[in-house]
Structures are given as structure tokens and as C-alpha cells.
């Protein structure tokens, strides 16, 4: 008979304790808030799924502002992905392949990635000002009325340019790593086959970069979907609510208005959206891997 | 279809080569005849891939010219030469089907679609790829992928030569043989010059009509497999080809006699041209040295006997020098005392590594 000893499970206890304190308990607190309404003096009242109903109904005040922020967020993510991914690929293709220039390029490209978010926000807040900022002043002197604190479009342009400035190098570095992994023989074979520059890109470089591109898109999507610090520092969500993304709205709701119940419901839905997107990416990537493994077998 | 002439070709990767040591490829003059099956054989780093890349135009030689028939193509880019190349690691276009892969070179050259399609199918039939024509190329095994690479070369009807750069490296052993026979078969059918780079002597000797042996950036011998085996022009060829390689023993030669210490070996030719200070060596393949019982030849000490399947090879010591000898089936040696019998027709004399021709022995007048 096989002797079963379950005492080994005790070894999991420390991990369980850490996870409980760092994740499970805080989440349960949020879940707890999301089903209650709070008044002063720490009085809580049971509200069931009321906040969730409000949140997911665009005709309600809460739902309206949530969906506005959500669409703004998705639009923002779509725009920066549409700019940063092609631009990152182009930069990676233009990067030198050998010599001291490689190191120089890599260092320069890594610089924006090393700057803290709030510093990036501050840099652009000043840079884009019409009175003392080099960019804002120059654009205004060209005769264009540029004012990111007053005009919605200008605020969006500034935030997008800032994000592109901050994060394109990440996409470029990932693509560069993908390009470097292509053996020379592929390029040589393509030359022998008489492939044009475009055909080389389409048939060799792009397929070989597929995996890193997927990761780049995932990282950039997640990062832009949870963007907070930079627009908070730059525009504070304004003008009006024009650049209020979900995270900014959430902080306003939770810490500004101290509506803990609404904010808890919103953060849970926000979390679920991110989980779903992660799951989709994960599935796509593992499917691609499985495809590859079938080849090896 | 073309004859490929290498005219005083040399290549250095550095910008300003000073002496011969800076050349990855030392000066070479060679003609690859139309329709020949050649192997370029040598150890890693001997310059054979450089030479191959010069022929295909991926590398521009530092000196010399390369001619296809009588046309100077030294400055032509790869795509303007009628060359196909199969690389060490299979190159297929991942996103395309096998059919699209085969059609790719023709599509790039703007061949009409119907001609392209017909040609792709014809080549697929030739390479036994018809079954998988519509499958994605990346889902196939390595040997299939190599066939596709080859096929992309063959579809171009104007292709003058196909270059193979160690194409069987990543192929499973039991499929290597099969793929190699496919190559031979295609060579017979299509009358295309094939140049096959390898460091594996079996591959070279079974594939090629003519083997070019390279060592340290230079061609040391060009010949048929028999010539390389029977008359290695350089001790390197003797070592490199054959398994085990040729015995190369330092010796002293006086007229038509070679001395290994005190053992005198009568030679069929005389070598009066040997100069003082040259490194003189005697070369003989293990196949032509027979192990005999003690007393039937030069005394030797047996270290061990290896059974290598088709033959038995004795590792022996003679006059203080380690060498290999073949063990005839009917011979059995007890103890470690034995004798060696040299087949003098296959004894070669080398000076500083190079084969010496020697002169016929003048018999004393009688």
C-alpha cells in the first residue's frame, strides 16, 4: 500500500500567508466595499450589486463617466499602438547592425525608458507650455494657437506625442532583438531569390518578429490602458474631462470623492477587463507556440 | 549553364592584408566545368564557405576575377548571377506554402504566373514534394525544408550552378543518405554544376566526381576520390581523408631507400632532389600496411586492435612511432610482438608536407 503523507503541504503555508496579505485580503476588502454604501462615521450599508448595475449602465451618472473614460482609454491605446508599433519597427530596421554605433544607439534608446513617469509628465508639461516651453512657444510663434490646457485636441496631441516619445524605444528594442535573431542565411537566400526590400520585410523580417511584436503590443496595451501618472501630471485629466482615463477617474472617485463603494466596483470591472485582455493574449501566444512545437516534433 | 572560372582569386576580410596570414582565402586558380559535381572539402575555418560566398556573390573578393563562361561577374550582385545556394540551416519562407516558396524566385523575376505555377509543380515532382505542395513550409521536417531550398534554386531554368553549404548538418542521419542520393539523381537529370561544401569526407567522396580539398585558406589538392586516396598531394590530405588517416612518419631518404631509424624501406622511386633542412616524411595508408606475425616484416609492437566493422585496424608502434595498420582476416597475432609489411607501391615521400614525384630508379648496369 502506498503511504500518503500530506504534511508536505505545510511547506506552502509561507507562500499562502504572503499572497493572502499582499493580494487576497486587499482584493476581498475591495470586493467588500463594492457591495456596500458608506456614510460618514464608518457606517456601512448593504447595497448588493447596485454599484455594478449603475456602473455598467451608461444612462446612469456612474456608468456614463465610466464608459466615457473607458472609450477615451481605448481610443488612446489604439492611437498609440497605431503609431508606436510601425514607428518602432521602422526604427529597429534603421538601427545599425554592428560596431560602436549599436551600443550608442541602444543607450540612447534606453534613456527615455529610464525616466520616471512623473518626471516625463513634468518635462512635457513645461516643454509644451506656450509661454516658457520650447515646443509650445515655437508652435505658437509659427502662428498655430496651441494650448494643451485649454484645447481638447491639443491636450490629446501632447499626451500622445509624450507617450510616443517615452515608449517607442521599447517597441524598437524588442523588434531589434527579433531582427538580430534572424540568421544571415535568410537574407542571403532572399538575395539569391531576387527578393525586393519590401518582400524581404514581408516574408522574412515581419514573420520572424511576430512573437516579439505580440509581446510589444501586449506591453504597450497594458501600459497605456492603465496610464495614470503622465496625463495626471500633464493635464490633470482636463481640459474638462477630455483626458480623464479610467485610472484617473478611479482615483478621483476613490480618493477625491471618497465614494468607496462605487470606486471598488469600478476597480473590479477595470481589473476584469485587464484579465480578459491578458487571457486573450496568452491564448494567442500559446497557440502560436503549440504551432511551433508541432513543427519541431 | 556555365563553366565557372576562378582567376587569381583571393580574399581577406580585413581592410589592408599585409601577408598571406591575413588572407582567409589564399590565391586560387580553378575551373569548375559545366555539369560537374564538385565537393569542397576541408575542416572548419579553412575558407571553403568564403569561397562559396564569393562564387554566389555574397562576398566580393579582394583580388582576382570570377568568370561564368567568359563573362566577368566579379562585380555583379548575387541576384544578377544565375546561382542558387542551399544553406547549412534550411531557409524557407515561414508564412508561405511549399508551392509559394517554390514560386517565389520566379515571382520576384516577374515570370508569368502560369509558367511559374507549371514550373513549381514540375520541380515539386522532381523533389517528391507534390504531396505537401499546399502545406505551410514551416510545418515540415528539416529534410523537406532543405528540399524546398534546393527547389527554389532549381525552379529557375537559367540556373548555372547550385552551391551547397553543408546542407546535411541538421538532417537526421538516416535521411542524410536519402537526401544525398536525391541530389545525385538531380545532378544526373539536370546537368547542372553542383558545388558541395562539407567537412565530412564521406559526404564529399560519395557526392562528388571531383573533390577540392582546402586547408588553411588554400587548395591543397583537386582530384577524384581515388586520386585523393591513393596519391594525396599533401600530408594534410592524407590525414584528412581516410579513416583512420594516412600514417605520416618522419624519416630519412637516401636515394631509393627510406630509413625509419634503422629500418630500411626500399622505395620504387629515387628522391635525389630532396634538400638538406626539409622536413622529410614517409606516408602510407593503413590499408597498405599489413600486420603480420613476428618475423615477417619490420618489427613492431601492437598497442591494440580496433574492429571498425568492415576491417580490423591495429594501432602499433614501429621504431618509436605510432601508426595504424590493417589486420588481414587470416592473421592472428598473439602477444604484442608483431611485424609490419609495407606495400611499397603505395609508399609516398613528402618534403615539407608536399608529395615528391621522385625519379625512376636507375638499376645498376649488370
Question: How many DSSP E strands of chain A?
Answer: 2
CATH class bucket of the largest domain in chain B: Alpha Beta
Which fold name is given in CATH as the topology of the largest domain in chain B?
Answer: Rossmann fold
CATH homologous superfamily assignment of chain A: MetI-like
What overall geometry of chain A do the principal axes of the alpha carbons give?
A: globular
Intertermini distance of chain B: 60 Å
Strand line-up in the sheet with most strands of chain A: 1-2
Under CATH, the homologous superfamily of the largest domain in chain B reads P-loop containing nucleotide triphosphate hydrolases
User: Major sheet of chain B, described briefly?
Assistant: 6 strands, mixed
Largest sheet of chain A: 2 strands, antiparallel
Strand residue percentage of chain B: 25-35%
**Structural class given helices, strands, pairing of chain B?**
alpha+beta
Fraction of residues in helix of chain A: over 70%
Return the average pLDDT of chain A rounded to an integer: 87
Organism (chain A): Microvirga brassicacearum
Membrane topology (chain A): Multi-pass membrane protein
InterPro entries (chain A): MetI-like (IPR000515), MetI-like_sf (IPR035906), Sugar_ABC_transporter (IPR052730)
GO biological process, one term (chain A): transmembrane transport
What does this protein structure show overall?
The complex is a heterodimer of chains A (297) and B (366). Helices cover 73% and strands 3% of the residues of chain A. Chain A has twelve helices and two strands, in the order αββααααααααααα. In chain A, β1 and β2 form a beta hairpin. Chain A is globular. The longest helix of chain B has 18 residues, at 173-190. A six-stranded mixed beta sheet of chain B has the order 6-7-8-3-9-10, sandwiched between helices. Chain B has two domains: 4-238, 3-Layer(aba) Sandwich (Rossmann fold); 244-360, Nucleic acid-binding proteins (OB fold (Dihydrolipoamide Acetyltransferase, E2P), Beta Barrel), CATH 2.40.50.140. Helix content of chain B is 23%, strand content 33%. The chains are: A mainly alpha (297), B alpha+beta (366). Chains A and B meet through α8, α9 and α12 of A and β6, α2 and α4 of B. Chain B: Keywords: ATP-binding, Cell membrane, Membrane, Nucleotide-binding, Transport.
